[in-house]
Amino acid sequence: FSAAAIASENVTLLNCRLCELLSNLRALSDSNEQIAESLRTDCPGDPDLIEAAAENVGVIERKKAEVEAIVAEIRRRGLEAEVPEDVRRMGKQDGDDGKGSKEEAKEEGYFL
Predict the structure, then answer these.
(1) Around Cβ 28, how many Cβ atoms within 10 Å?
(2) Around Cβ 107, how many Cβ atoms within 10 Å?
(3) What region does 100 belong to: left with phi over 0, alpha with psi -120 to 50, or beta?
(4) Tell me: the pLDDT tens digits for 16-67?
(5) Cβ atoms within 10 A of the Cβ of 50, count?
(6) Measuring CA to CA, which residue among 49, 27, 30, 29 is closest to residue 40?
(7) Cβ-count burial of 90 within 10 angstroms (0-12 exposed, 13-18 middle, 19+ buried)?
(8) Model's pTM, two decimal places?
(9) Fewer CB within 10 Å, N- or C-terminus of the chain?
(10) How far is it, in rounded angstroms, from Cα 88 to Cα 108?
């Protein structure tokens, strides 16, 4: 959703989209944890896994931004909404720009 679409949407649909995004984010986080485990144990340095982890981080950051925009809009309308703690912790690490890189994935094994 764009900012304009979020502002014009009814609250019920915003809540539905928020639930969908939270589910997607948790699945992406689980995927990156599985990728990290594979990079540590079965496939160290695998370029496809490294690329998948880097792509997931970018998607996580975009979806988190949408979650934050939806939560802000729901609050603007005077209703209660929060970004769950597990979602706030996803993605960025200290000093990370949120874009991820194959080099970082190779060094760290994963981004989350």
Answers:
(1) 19
(2) 9
(3) left
(4) 999 999 999 999 999 999 999 999 999 999 999 999 999 999 999 999 999 9
(5) 23
(6) 49
(7) buried
(8) 0.78
(9) N
(10) 20
